[in-house]
Sequence to fold (139 residues):
Amino acid sequence: MQSSPSTPAENAGVSRARAARTSHPVEQPSLKMERNASIDGVSKDRRRKKNRQAQAAFRERQKKVIADLRQDVVHHVQYSQLLKKKIYDMLAGMEAMKSGVEEALALEPPLMSTDFLRTGILEVRSSPAPSSEASHEGF
Fold:
């Protein structure tokens, strides 16, 4: 295992050795800045272009979503109108049935004879029956 230099003289020697390996340590930051500036400019342009593309894609998706929602609204309005029509038709049918039931209930019930209670045969009399003698007298 290597240990790090512990004396200041050794530290200075190591620093000089590192500096000798790199070319022009003083000029290097300015070159880095120039490279970074040009890279930053290119990367910023790329990022801006990507952002514009992403925004355009988002706007297209939004347009599609809005168009789909409008189509859904039209469909639901038509369905709602159909249901309203069916409800009004059913209400009209119920009113017709109601008036028919009311008319039927307003009629007088048929007279029941005592024979019906014994035999179960209903005799309907709308008016008193003429006697059998009266009908034979005319002849």
